[in-house]
Amino acid sequence: MAVPIRIGVLQLSMEPVAETVQMAQACESAGFDAFWLAEAYPWWRKHSYEARSSTAIAAIIARETKRIPVGWGIISPYTRNPIQIAMEARVMQDVAGAGRFFLGLGASKIFMKEAGEGETGKSAGPATVMKESIEIIRGVLGGEEFHYEGKVFDAHVPALKPEAHVARQQIPIYIGATGPVLQRMSGSMADGLLTASITTPDFVRYSRTFMEEGARKAGRDPANQDLGAVIVGSVGKDPKRARDGAREMAAMYLANKVQNIRGSADMLLEKAGLSFDEIRPIADAMESGGRKAAARAVTDEVFEKVRPIAGMPEDCIRRIEEYRAAGCSHILLELWGDDRIEQAKLFGEAVLPHFKH
């Protein structure tokens, strides 16, 4: 039996807000199942982009759309206290309404590197930070009197009054993770797992093993755990042009793996069959000539190893089926290239109907 699959779009919060809102509206019109925002970081300034708050943009998107669920994919408790995260989640509950919001939480190694871990990172490792953050977020959103004293965070919050006009339901929480410890935690205490860019079908299989292991150990049904994978993509009627957009985004992410998150990216690259020596020329081209030069440095062999959802509609359908067979239940498609609004429309016309039955 085929794994049920949702197909959403993920976009970095590094572009003008009006353009991001327009893309979210196009994705809603096309019939995508979700629109996720990944929080950009200041590294992108080197390449003519700006870091913007994904939580702020997500609230605007929720207000400017009607049906499509909106996700944070991901934000970090190293940059926001869990109580603040719960407060921002309340805003999303207000503007999105029930069933239209996913909360993605991750350590975000790039933020730990760029912004510094601060006091939070000195007292405990990422697993403890994540566990305490999830417990506090759920405790605060539950509305009851809540007292918490952990290794990293404390929280003391009075109960909501019965007449308080506020949502009481819990929000689906996803953990963004590439390593076994946090992937197991996604199964044991979260609603799903989000894997990083350059996820391949082999990495999906690797990740699902640990997620399900964590679920079983906690007495939970592994079948209820959602596995979302960030995958670069582009679609079009001309096969070469359709793949060029995904090639450029793959180049940017591969450069990022070399320059910013070595170590964290090792297993992602290993499961793609890529070595750092193989992708270092891409990072060098990115530094010297920008993203277009980096895209030219991505050979056909490297591009195929990334396993993008790219090409003509039938190519995209085949690749999504490959991810579904590996155990992916939620595609976070990062569309790039020429006219992404038209790409979203074509995806809705020629790809999504295949998976709606």
What can you tell me about this protein's structure?
The chain is α/β, with parallel strands linked by helices. It has a single domain, classed as Alpha-Beta Barrel (TIM Barrel), CATH 3.20.20. Helix content is 51%, strand content 16%. The protein has helices spanning 17-30, 54-64, 82-96, 109-114, 118-123, 126-142, 180-189, 201-217, 239-259, 266-272, 276-297, 300-306, 313-326, 340-350, 352-355, and strands at 6-12, 35-38, 70-75, 101-106, 146-149, 154-157, 173-176, 192-195, 226-235, 309-311, 330-335. The protein has an 8-stranded parallel barrel with strand order 1-2-3-4-7-8-9-11, surrounded by 8 helices. A two-stranded antiparallel ribbon has the order 5-6. Helix 7 (180-189) packs across helix 8, helix 8 packs parallel to helix 13 and helix 9 packs across helix 11 (276-297). The protein is globular. The chain starts with 5 loop residues before the first strand and ends with a helix. The mean pLDDT is 92.
How would you concisely characterize the structure shown here?
This protein has 357 residues and is of the alpha/beta class. Helix content is 51%, strand content 16%. The protein has helices spanning 17-30, 54-64, 82-96, 109-114, 118-123, 126-142, 180-189, 201-217, 239-259, 266-272, 276-297, 300-306, 313-326, 340-350, 352-355, and strands spanning 6-12, 35-38, 70-75, 101-106, 146-149, 154-157, 173-176, 192-195, 226-235, 309-311, 330-335.
